[in-house]
């Protein structure tokens, strides 16, 4: 999983194959065009993988272009995070970073060209009236009373807009297309609006900003993009994309193709909603390990390879669907099963006292870091007279078929010897405080010599040597399978999305590098939290359990 795997073929690749066979392009050029108004999420990963792997597989180029036409919600933090996330995911854009704002001057010139051709006009209807005049799917729109101004007037007014002579909302530039079109997008769409706000790239140079639809097709064409790939909701916008490029003097005309968005069960992939979770402090930030942002997933312990593999598996179609969260989880599980070193951690500890070992008994045990990868080496773990096991691995009431520890029953301690529970001690509240066991010291290197069958295996850590640690266990942020469909996503917040446990890890974890994922045997895959974990206080995020359990317990 360490390599960027090629996609199987899909309808977009088939189109490209045909275009190339017809000699339409000397080179395939795609782009990933995020708006820097939030962090990237798993849905963006689908688009990134598509654009960058197509460019790579066809020996073409993929640009990273910020669609920065609405400075109100954009900022440098988002730009930096997006650059970092794309790189982390394993991709490198061709050439320098690009911005739609690099082309503001050219876009302005193209707007002038449209005005001169009688194809754009300055409208002074208020935004509300513009909406009203637009009509609806069943009612044709109405022409604005300003629609038939002369070219000379329009040129003068548009230049006044640029000069800041109008206030926000007092005027805008609209394309003159058809107020009765069955495509709402073609009912004289707004091309420029006034915003007196500084822009992160252009400062206070502009007070008019192009709309996405106007800037996008022109930026694509100026960059020589051949295939402009976007999601299905832009299907109708393609009419405007083509209308603009057909009506200005520009050398190339990229083709837009749409594919379905990634929608994931129990998750939201909309920056607007993610932003709300952050600003209303439902989560710690954009990189909260429960967020399906790339920053959150990275902090949680997802590997870039597992996300690329997930994107490869879901494929590219025009079909809208909801992908099972299990599909994402199996990608990370498969990766970590193969690559994560093993260690032991006890999340809900109870003390075990081994009565037949001498006081102060210690034995250093060498354990493989991976059960079938010798090259990952071994680690040394002390075994002592007192250990911790997980509370759930002991059952007070005798139970048939119970594989773990019970009074009178013998189990194997993982990588150590067998123990048998003899008696327990409880506190005043009836909680077990200690389990007294005997052990068979002849079983460190194999089965009991008398042929006793030991079926259960439990994990443990040394009472004296273990390091205390916090474990954060996660469930999806939402209880609804499709939270975006609920009236308010906040009605479906999962109160158990983060559960905190205080426990212990084996002492070899003292120097565990942050961001390296481990399998804590029988507990799942974990990764030290890059924000909260310190040498004095280890904090681990559970990336994913060993098996899918969350859904089973909820359905
Ligand atoms: P959001 O709704 O989260 O704001 P967006 O589409 O407005 O998403 P952009 O930053 O404009 O976000 O998206 C950049 C690119 O990523 C676009 O080409 C967009 O189509 C694509 N993209 C965004 N969300 C998804 C998704 N869920 N699945 C696939 N592609 C997506
Ligand atoms: Mg967008």
UniProtKB/TrEMBL annotation:
GO cellular component term, pick one: cytosol
Coiled-coil segments: none
Localisation: Cytoplasm
Biological-process GO terms, alphabetical: glutaminyl-tRNA aminoacylation; glutamyl-tRNA aminoacylation
Binding site for ATP: 35-37, 41-47, 231, 261-262
Catalytic activity: tRNA(Gln) + L-glutamine + ATP = L-glutaminyl-tRNA(Gln) + AMP + diphosphate
Name of the protein this chain belongs to: Glutamine--tRNA ligase
């Amino acid at each position: 999983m360490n390599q960027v795997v090629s996609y199987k073929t899909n309808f977009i690749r088939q189109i490209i194959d045909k275009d190339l066979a017809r000699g339409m392009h000397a080179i395939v050029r795609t782009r990933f065009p995020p708006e820097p108004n939030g962090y990237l999420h798993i849905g963006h990963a689908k688009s990134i993988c598509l654009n960058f792997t197509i460019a790579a597989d066809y020996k073409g180029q993929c640009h990273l272009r910020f669609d920065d036409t609405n400075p109100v919600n954009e900022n440098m933090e988002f730009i930096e995070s997006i650059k970092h996330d794309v790189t982390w995911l394993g991709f490198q854009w061709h050439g320098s970073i690009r911005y739609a704002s690099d082309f503001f001057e050219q876009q302005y010139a193209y707007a002038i060209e449209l005005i001169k051709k009688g194809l754009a006009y300055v409208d002074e209807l208020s935004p509300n009236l513009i909406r009203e005049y637009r009509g609806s799917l069943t009612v044709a729109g109405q022409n604005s009373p300003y629609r038939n101004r002369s070219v000379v007037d329009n040129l003068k007014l548009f230049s006044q807009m640029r000069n800041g002579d109008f206030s926000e909302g007092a005027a805008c530039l609209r394309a003159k297309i058809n107020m009765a079109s069955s495509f709402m997008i073609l009912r004289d769409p707004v091309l420029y609006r006034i915003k007196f706000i500084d822009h992160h790239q252009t400062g206070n140079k502009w007070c008019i900003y192009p709309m996405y639809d106007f800037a996008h097709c022109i930026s694509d064409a100026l960059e020589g993009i051949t295939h402009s790939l976007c999601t299905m909701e832009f299907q109708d916008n393609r009419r405007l994309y083509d209308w603009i490029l057909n009506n200005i003097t520009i050398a190339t005309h990229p083709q837009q193709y749409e594919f379905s968005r990634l929608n994931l069960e129990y998750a939201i992939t909309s920056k607007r909603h993610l932003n709300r979770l952050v600003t209303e402090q439902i989560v710690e930030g954009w990189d909260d390990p429960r967020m399906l942002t790339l920053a959150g997933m990275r902090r949680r312990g997802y590997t870039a390879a597992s996300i690329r593999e997930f994107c490869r598996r879901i494929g590219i179609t025009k079909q809208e669907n909801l992908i099972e969260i299990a599909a994402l989880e199996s990608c990370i599980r498969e990766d970590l099963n193969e690559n994560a070193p093993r260690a032991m951690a006890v999340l809900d500890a109870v003390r075990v006292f081994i009565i037949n070992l001498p006081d102060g008994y210690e034995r250093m045990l060498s354990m493989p870091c991976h059960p079938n990868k010798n090259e990952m080496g071994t680690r040394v773990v002390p075994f002592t007279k007192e250990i911790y096991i997980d509370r759930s691995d002991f059952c007070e009431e005798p139970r048939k078929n119970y594989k773990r520890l019970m009074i009178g029953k013998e189990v194997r301690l993982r990588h150590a010897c067998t123990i048998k529970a003899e008696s327990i001690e409880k506190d005043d509240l009836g909680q077990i405080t200690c389990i007294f066991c005997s052990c068979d010291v002849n079983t460190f290197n194999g089965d009991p010599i008398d042929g006793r069958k030991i079926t259960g295996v439990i994990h443990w850590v040394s009472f004296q040597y273990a390091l205390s640690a916090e474990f954060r266990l996660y469930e999806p942020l939402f209880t609804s399978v499709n939270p975006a469909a609920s009236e308010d996503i906040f009605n479906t917040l999962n109160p158990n999305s983060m559960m905190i446990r205080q426990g212990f890890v084996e002492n070899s974890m003292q120097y565990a590098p942050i961001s390296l994922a481990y399998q804590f045997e029988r507990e799942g895959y974990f990764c030290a939290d890059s924000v909260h974990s310190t040498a004095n206080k280890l904090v681990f995020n559970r990336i994913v359990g060993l098996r899918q359990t969350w859904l089973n317990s909820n359905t």
